[in-house]
Amino acid sequence: MSAEQGSGLPFSKARCITLVLTVTCAAFLNTMGVQAAVIILPTIGKHLSIPDSRQQWVISAYSLTFGCFLLLWGRIADVYGKRLIFLWGSVWLTVTSLVAPFVTNEIGFDIFRGLQGLGAAAMVPTAIGILGVTFPPGKAKNYAFSCYGAGAPLGGIFGNIFGGVLGQYLDWRWVFWIFAILAAIVTVAGYFIIPLPPIQTEAISMRNTVDWIGGTLITVGLLILLFALSEGNVVGWSTPWVPVLIVVSILMIALFAFWQHYLEKRGTSKPLMKVSIFKNIRFSAANVIMLLFFASFNNFLIYATYWFQDYLALSVIQTTIRFIPTGVSGIIVAFITAQLLSRVRGDLILTFGTLCVSISSLLFAIPIPTDTTYWAYGFPAMVLSVCGADTLYPTLTLFTAKSLPSEDQALGGALINAVGQVGRAIGLAVATAVQTAVMAREEGTSVEQIGNAGHAAGKGSEALKVGLRSASWFNFAIALGAVGVVMLFFRGAGKVGHKT
Description:
Growth Hormone, Chain: A, 79% helix, membrane, mainly alpha, Drug resistance protein, transmembrane helix, transport, MFS_dom
């Protein structure tokens, strides 16, 4: 037995480190691509002649395909091989990122953004699955999941810096081209670093058991739901087809749940997702926490960007500089979290994380004078937000991995990320509705007019200030909701990083 194997490592230390870094890039690139696009969104809109009311589709097209295909890709990866699907996804992400900037019309560009999300949806759940089946419970697994857990929030943070610097000093297209280069590097690294799976007759026999009916129901259901939520604030929630689509999506998701229950009880074919896993109260609570946390943290990043750029009228690079503390503190917190997972109870870590995320939004919500120095509210908010994200995300993903058998690891990764993506869509839709309603009240106009005018219409105005702060109060409230779920269902929870 080698020294590495004796210490619980499946390979040499160097290969384990490169493996973790390689698969962590899936989470990092995913959120980095979204946030970088947010920063350069006005520039893209100007060059492609996209009006303010439709610019959100540059972001939403990616999020739609990413969130909707996670569960299906997760099951396909568990059946056909996590390494294969990870590599397929990274190649696809490379090609679509490379081609997208060459598309000069709005619809074509949005389609390629959606294709980018399809590739990311194949990479993210398989990355969690690869870590889950590669590392046995113990210190190495804690470090691996802490590193992976830091990837998503750090990707969002560095996306601001990446998009801001390139958008300021280079052509906006370089954001996508350099992103494609990074994805290509991950592809090459994954090919050489991710181990080939052992040939298992059970896996081969499972290859005809992908639940395509269930996959279609949940994928189409989520697609309709996220589309309706994304469009509601543009066309108005009173538009007849918006609530109709929401009801249809809910019915399809409910039908998916019934179908999965039927397959699991019948036992003759494998369901896409075992409904029985939700009988574990803490597992269900972990998904609720993920939904609320992701909604609040994502909204914090977006509304902090709006505050700096749209209300304070700062440049892209000035806004980028204000996000730098999140990157520095995020790296530090990721290393500390790896040590805490096996030493501190899970409920304490989750309580700390949810409180940090809530306070970060609170600091942007309270009515402090607008000429207050950034160091008094912006800096502590940035640090606290990543303290919350980089403790919550690895704890929840590690808990999910421990709760499921090895054959469902990629699906578990898909589920926790799909829940987060739905939380992001619902949270942003409600926060935007709150903001536009408050701005409409302040300006004495209709919600539809505010939504179509965009943020720039009220730049520096009192109505915009009150609207942004109202949205931040909402973000604070949903993070407090996550605190409540932790206290109710995780009280006395053990150390997530302990060997079982």
